[in-house]
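Reading a protein record of the kind used here takes little practice once its layout is understood. The reader may check this reading against the record printed directly beneath this paragraph.
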Amino acid sequence: MKSKLIPHSILLFTLSIMLVISCSQQNDSLQIKLVQRIDSLQQQVNQLKPGFGDIMGQIQIHHAKLWFAGSAENWELTDFELHEIDENIEKIKQLYPDDPITGDLSRLDQPLDSLTAAMKAQDVELFKQQYHMLTHTCNNCHNDNGYEFNVIKTPEHPPVSNQEFNPS
C-alpha cells in the first residue's frame, strides 16, 4: 500500500509544479499585455494633453479680460477671471510637474493674492497697480526662462468683441 502512495505523491507534486508554472506564464503574459496597454494609453494622453504654451495662451487671454473687468469695476467678472488664471496655473502644475518653469509659477502667488485683495476691497486704483505688478512679474518670469521675446502688456482693446465688461 505504501508503494502506491509514493507515485501518487510524486504525481501530485508534479501536477502542482506544472500548475504553478502555467499560472506564472499566464501571469507574465497578462503583465506584458497590461504594460503595453499602459504605454499605449500614455502615448494617447501625451498627444491629447495641451501644450505648456497653449495653457499659457489661455492665461494671457484671462489676463487681458481681467484688466477690462477690473477697470470697469465688474468685481464678479474680475473674480471669475482670477479663478480662471488660478485654474490654468494649477493645470500646468498637474500636467508639467517636472518642467523647471512650473516651479517658477509660484512667483505669481503674491501678485494674484494682491489682486484678489484689491478686488475684494473693490478698489479700482489698487487693482490697476496690482495688475501692473502681475504683468511685470509675468515678464520677469519670461525673461528669466529664455522667453524674453514674449512681452506681456496692459491691453488696449478687449481680447474679444462679444463680451461686455461693464457691470449691468
Summary: The longest helix spans residues 2-48. The chain has six helices and no strands. The chain has a mean pLDDT of 89.
